[in-house]
């Protein structure tokens, strides 16, 4: 019963947290992306150290390590741009929320 209703309970809870606690979310949005970036970086370094033992040819190591790292750097830069767009989306939801309170 819990497993069946998990989606219907969990996703409105997430949207409610984003809409009602968005000043707290604005502070921690970029911090979460930096934390994700560090986790991806550490994972790629660990994968790079493992591939030193497993892969014989050295030119396989460069795309193995640098590709996901560059991808995470690009996603971090796009998240800085999408942060302003996300704020505009939150302000679009704001009149609907206040109109529900008045009715």
Automatic annotation (TrEMBL):
The chain crosses the membrane at residues 20-46, 58-81. Keywords: Membrane, Transmembrane, Transmembrane helix. It comes from the Eukaryota. The keyword Membrane applies. This is Uncharacterized protein. It comes from Heterorhabditis bacteriophora. The lineage of its organism: Eukaryota, Metazoa, Ecdysozoa, Nematoda, Chromadorea.
